[in-house]
Design goal:
Blueprint (H helix, E strand, L loop, with lengths): L4 H13 L20 H4 L7 H4 L7 E2 L5 E2 L7 E4 L5 E5 L4 E5 L4 E4 L2 E11 L5 E2 L6 E9 L4 E10 L7 H4 L10 E4 L17 E7 L7 E8 L3 E3 L1 H10 L16 E2 L1
Parallel strand pairs: 1-8, 2-15, 10-13, 10-14
Antiparallel strand pairs: 3-6, 4-5, 4-11, 5-7, 6-7, 7-9, 9-10, 12-13, 12-15
Length: about 260
């Protein structure tokens, strides 16, 4: 896919803002640089939203009180496919940077898939319950706005699509990379839960700078990974989740 220069500039700006693309980040999930201290790590105030923001993510989803929206599912469609991946250990997660034309449409707006990554345990909770892992697909619209799709992961059968990545050996050390060609890569459309309702809410990045204005779409149905697949990830990242933030009277919709 050819990318126009204006789009290249836009992507560069978003990648600079997303901590998953930044090798210079000093934040972490434990010790003096843990989530409670993120706002203080940038002396220029760039992480202030992590403490002062009122629409932060993740949250605990109270499914019983979610507002039912009849037409919400019809406003969401995916155009994900098998695409080459650059899988990297960025020091915070295992992240797969996606090549090729992968997109979704939400409420008439098109977003391009930039990358997907994993957290353990899950960052979001459903009715107070954590899951062993959570997967995020990060998507960006032409105007720079972000939409993150999330699915919880539970222990069960081996995930045959994600095994395309696991079988290549997850990068063990920070900075290590594995490139996966299209023929060996997972079909990204099949990494999504096959049938599921969704939760929708307005939130933020779950990592510094905790930027707000992010549209979240969460599958209610979890994905499955085998105990071996979950253990392989946890061997590298035993805990890389941000604790849940206050909902602060935000509306949570369900289709």
């Amino acid at each position: 896919m050819l990318i126009k220069p204006t789009r290249l500039k836009l992507i560069a700006g978003v990648l600079a803002a997303l901590p998953f693309y930044s090798a210079a980040s000093e934040w972490s999930y434990s010790g003096h640089n843990a989530p409670d201290h993120w706002a203080m790590l940038d002396t220029n105030g760039g992480y202030a939203t992590c403490a002062k923001g009122t629409h932060q993510s993740p949250i605990d989803i109270p499914s019983a009180s979610a507002t039912h929206i009849n037409a919400a599912s019809a406003s969401l469609s995916f155009n994900y496919q098998r695409s080459p991946l650059d899988v990297v250990n960025n020091g915070h997660s295992i992240q797969a940077n996606v090549q090729g034309d992968n997109s979704l449409v939400f409420q008439g707006k098109t977003y391009q898939l930039l990358q997907f990554h994993f957290h353990s345990p899950s960052e979001h909770l459903y009715n107070g319950k954590h899951f062993p892992m959570e997967m995020h697909w990060v998507n960006q619209a032409a105007d720079g706005s972000l939409l993150v799709v999330a699915a919880m992961i539970k222990s069960g059968e081996s995930n045959t699509e994600l095994e395309h990545i696991w079988s290549k050996m997850l990068p063990q050390k920070k900075g290590a990379q594995v490139q996966i060609g299209q023929a060996q890569a997972p079909d990204l459309s099949k990494t999504l839960p096959s049938t599921s309702k969704h939760f929708f809410y307005q939130g933020s990045l779950t990592t510094p700078p905790c930027t707000e204005g992010v549209q979240w779409v969460l599958f209610e149905q979890p994905l499955q990974l085998s105990e071996g697949q979950i253990s392989a990830f946890r061997h590298i990242f035993a805990d890389n989740h941000r604790p849940a933030a206050a909902i602060n009277q935000r509306e949570i919709d369900e289709d």
